[in-house]
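Data follows
____________
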Amino acid sequence: MPVCMLCGSRGTTWLVLPHATVCRCSRKSCGLRFAPPQLNDRNMQDAYTRLYYQNPQSGSRPIYENTPAAILRQLFEDLAVQFGTEGGRRCLDVGCGAGNLCRVASEFGWAATGIEADPEGRESAQKRAGVRVYENVVKLLREEPNARFDLITLWQVIEHLR
C-alpha cells in the first residue's frame, strides 16, 4: 500500500502509465498525486527514450507528444499583453524537451535558451528551435556565467523531478 509523501495517508491507484503507476492520496484535504516508487536514473532515461522522443534507430514516434505550439503561442500572447512586445527579453526553458516552447518564444522575439537532460531531446531542440540547449544548469553557467533571464519556465517538468 503506497503512502502519501506529503501527509502520510494511504494512496490508491489513480492512473496506470507505461512507465509508472500514479497514486492519489485518499485524504480529501491533501489529494497529492504521486508515483511510488520514483524511477531511478536508468529507468527514467529508458522512459524518455521509449516514450518522449522519436527513436532514430527504429524511427518510432513518441507516445507522449510535446505541448502543441498553439497552446504555447497563447502563453506568449498573454505575456505580450502583460509585459509588452519590446525585444531583448530572454527565456530559459528548463526541461525543454524537443524545443517547442523555445521555438515559439523565438517567434515572439524572445532570445530562448533550453536545458534538457536527455541527449535526444537536446539534439532535437537545437535543430527544431535553433537555440542553445544545455544538459543542466551547471553547464549553462559554465558557458554563460552572467546569464540572466526575464522568464524561466518548467513546462510539464515538476512530475519528472525527484
In short: The mean pLDDT is 88. Residues 99 and 155 are 11 Å apart (CA to CA). The helical segments are 41-52, 69-83, 100-107, 119-129, 137-143. The longest strand covers residues 11-16.
